[in-house]
Amino acid sequence: MSAVSAGDDVRTRLLAAIPRLSPSGLKVARVIQHDPSGVAQLTVNQLAEQSRTSTSAVVRLAKTLGYDGYPQLRLALAAAGSEDGSPVFATDIHAADELSKVLHKLTAFETEGMLATAELADPAALEAVVDALAGARRVQLIGIGASGLVAMDLAQKLTRIGMWCSACTSEDDALVQASLLEAGDVIVAFSHSGETAGIVEAVEHASRATTVAVTAGDRSKLARAAQHTVLVAGREDGFRSAALASRMSQLLIVDTLYVGVLQRTPSAHAALHRTYDAVANRRTKGVR
């Protein structure tokens, strides 16, 4: 590619490439993501210095993205940033985008979110939460809206392996159930912002139980109220509201916690087989 074409979407290219980048390429990509307009003004040497890599790493990234070299990548960043007067990485899905492009962008966005979540989540916090869940007498999961769907997903998974748990998706129910928790119980609260009043209050009411927050707000009220906080990534902007931005990152944490509990619960595999067998005949009934 020798020239920048109209509508060249450098952001989508970069996000799609992140999973296959080398460590040095990822460092360069992060600098570009942080300040794309500023990077468009940098020489290859300056970008290498800012990313603490090498000029060859910068050039390799440019070629990975489909450009002939770094000068073409700079032009793409400058052009994309000036199309509507806003920085290239401040935009996401546009109303006029074709569905095929929407699908491509969403794939890149969600991949970025999950990769960032994998970097953000503290392994020690994950281990502590899994240990608490595996030994819990009762598990209460709470969340509102899109976060409520995530709470229900974890409830379904844990129930299938024989754990006593439930999910609350309204503030009143969350407050009631949280107030009944005792020592040995665990409450896991899902909130992207960490500022949903009812969710924060429910965690505060569960003073006898082990409290866990799954949130993108590392300094939020929910994070401060909980004993353990698992951070997730996910921006909320434009068409990509919280229902899209945070759900996949939260579900990644849900699956991680579930697998961790499976690993620590000897009876879990037997419970999975029993619950599968219980509904297997219903799946095949009437099939010839």
From TrEMBL:
<dbReference type="GO" id="GO:0003700">
    <property type="term" value="F:DNA-binding transcription factor activity"/>
</dbReference>
<dbReference type="InterPro" id="IPR009057">
    <property type="entry name" value="Homeodomain-like_sf"/>
</dbReference>
<dbReference type="InterPro" id="IPR046348">
    <property type="entry name" value="SIS_dom_sf"/>
</dbReference>
<dbReference type="GO" id="GO:1901135">
    <property type="term" value="P:carbohydrate derivative metabolic process"/>
</dbReference>
<dbReference type="GO" id="GO:0003677">
    <property type="term" value="F:DNA binding"/>
</dbReference>
<dbReference type="GO" id="GO:0097367">
    <property type="term" value="F:carbohydrate derivative binding"/>
</dbReference>
<feature type="domain" description="SIS">
    <location>
        <begin position="129"/>
        <end position="267"/>
    </location>
</feature>
<dbReference type="InterPro" id="IPR047640">
    <property type="entry name" value="RpiR-like"/>
</dbReference>
<dbReference type="InterPro" id="IPR035472">
    <property type="entry name" value="RpiR-like_SIS"/>
</dbReference>
<protein>
    <submittedName>
        <fullName>SIS domain-containing protein</fullName>
    </submittedName>
</protein>
<dbReference type="Pfam" id="PF01380">
    <property type="entry name" value="SIS"/>
</dbReference>
<keyword id="KW-0238">DNA-binding</keyword>
<dbReference type="InterPro" id="IPR000281">
    <property type="entry name" value="HTH_RpiR"/>
</dbReference>
<dbReference type="InterPro" id="IPR001347">
    <property type="entry name" value="SIS_dom"/>
</dbReference>
<dbReference type="InterPro" id="IPR036388">
    <property type="entry name" value="WH-like_DNA-bd_sf"/>
</dbReference>
<keyword id="KW-0804">Transcription</keyword>
<dbReference type="Pfam" id="PF01418">
    <property type="entry name" value="HTH_6"/>
</dbReference>
<feature type="domain" description="HTH rpiR-type">
    <location>
        <begin position="8"/>
        <end position="84"/>
    </location>
</feature>
<keyword id="KW-0805">Transcription regulation</keyword>
